[in-house]
Amino acid sequence: MIDKHSLMHQWCGRLLPVCAALHILGHLFGSIPAIVNETDNAKINEVFTYGTMIKFNFNSWAEAMTCYPFVTGVGLVLLLCCFWALSNEYVRRRWFEAFHYPHLVLVVFWTGGLWAHGARQWLGCGVPLGQLVVFPVVLFYFGTRLSDIMRGIHPNIYIKDATIKKKTVLLEIDTENSGFVYETGMYCMLKVPAISEFEWHP
């Protein structure tokens, strides 16, 4: 399987904590103080819920820390920590399965968590914001990954030659008549069926 999205994938991973931190700061210094200091629910509904009635209203920071968005937000931060713990180079090089399989599951959990976190923020038409913004992107990602895997097992793709050097192995991969077109930045994911039918190593 050949992939060309590694840099984009890595930068998305790096930017997720940055965006999460900005989001948290926005709540701590923006929305939470505004709701705590406002006694008129109608004004809160008008500003924060886009046409629906808010189902919670906290009047103190203690109550804010137990509301539904806070609990789901903590869950999302924990998911980010899991992403980091299982995606660093030390884990990837020594326990690839511990990186690869949980990574795929965590993407699904992250999508569900974002959906749950923003479930109160409706767009006035009965559609959660997370469903419109996150769900289609994740579906597209998994669709392209599945397509790459199916194309990657094409019988015309095979290792044509291997040169063993002192510290590396140089592989010549033949993709003729397989539909693949090499582009700068692509890297190869190799599967060794004798080891596992489900492992792909960069």
Automatic annotation (TrEMBL):
GO terms for molecular function: oxidoreductase activity. GO terms for cellular component: plasma membrane. Keywords: Membrane, Oxidoreductase, Signal, Transmembrane, Transmembrane helix. Residues 1-21 form the signal peptide. Its main location: membrane. The chain crosses the membrane at residues 12-36, 68-86, 98-115, 121-142. It is found in: Membrane. Residues 3-111 form the Ferric oxidoreductase domain. It is a multi-pass membrane protein. This is Ferric oxidoreductase domain-containing protein.
